[in-house]
Design brief:
Neuraminidase, four-stranded antiparallel β-sheet, globular, mainly beta, single chain, 8% helix, five-stranded mixed β-sheet
Length: 279
């Protein structure tokens, strides 16, 4: 009886081994997808100075321009645009958006005007540099707004995905005309949650939401070529900080004169002046 059943058992065993419905690996594990992109190189840095930062400023955008620090903050009812004294953290000028439903996001200075994104309101506000106390124009943006910078010719917008949108304002229609879309990836695949952005010498530096890294993106192909690890930065210089879970790294401003970065986070009590050792 055993001999008669053996061929049948062998057939069942072979079938089971080739049946994809019962794989012998854990399919819940992430799968590496080689894409011929080299891993990003670590970017080391030195903290030159630490300044106070408003711990109630939910930082969404940061821009250094002609000796002044501009900051856009979020959250309903208190979203704002500010000009901040770097050394004290105190706003020299502050405009609170009166519409309580607006959630402010990234900012950039483009062609002598300040542009400010909104998160899910599908609006981009425009201000004069010399008067931030009221918008002079409003543009429509169909996607979510997260980060904003520019390369001198185009605005560059992130929407929380792995995409960077190159757009130009169309004054007649008050829409943003898309010029190109860049997908950001490294050797592990596409990098999503792109947030606050800063354009520096042909590269885009980007925060990733809920991530302690800033990535350096080659704008010719979208490849992440560098990475800054800022894990523990705030705690190192403020061991008693009591920031909440939403108080994540977010805010990059570049001073092209000194070649230094200003870095902070949402509701962080500190602003860091950083020099890149291998930019």
């Amino acid at each position: 009886m055993i001999r008669k059943l053996l061929p049948f058992a062998l057939i069942v065993l072979l079938f089971s081994c080739n049946n994809n419905s019962t794989p012998d690996i854990d399919t819940s594990l992430p799968v590496s997808r080689p894409n011929n992109i080299p891993p990003p190189e670590p970017i080391t840095f030195t903290v030159d100075s630490v300044y106070p930062h408003d711990p109630k400023a939910f930082t969404q955008g940061l821009q250094f321009y002609k000796g002044k620090l501009y900051e856009g903050t979020g959250e309903p009812k208190i979203s704002s645009l500010r000009i901040v004294d770097i050394k004290t953290g105190t706003p020299e000028k502050k405009y609170v958006i009166p519409d309580p439903t607006i959630f402010g996001e990234g900012i950039t200075i483009f062609k002598n005007k300040i542009y400010q994104l909104t998160w899910q309101n599908h609006k981009i506000f425009v201000y004069n540099l010399d008067d931030i106390m009221h918008p002079i124009a409003t543009y429509n943006w169909s996607l979510e707004g997260w980060g904003l910078t520019n390369d001198g010719n185009n605005l560059i917008i992130s929407d929380g995905s792995s995409k960077l949108y190159y757009v130009r304002p169309d004054e007649a229609s008050k829409q943003m005309r898309t010029i190109k879309i860049l997908t950001v990836a490294d050797n592990t695949g596409e990098l999503d949650s792109l947030n606050e952005l800063e354009y520096i010498d042909g590269y885009v530096f980007a925060n990733r939401w809920y991530n302690n890294h800033i990535i350096k993106i080659d704008t010719s192909n979208g490849h992440a070529v560098g990475i800054m690890d800022l894990t523990g930065l705030l705690h190192q210089y403020d061991p008693n900080d009591q920031v909440g879970d939403e108080a994540v790294l977010n805010g990059i401003a570049y001073d092209s004169t000194t070649k230094k970065l200003y870095i902070t986070g949402k509701d962080w009590p500190k602003l860091f002046e950083v020099k890149l050792n291998n930019p």
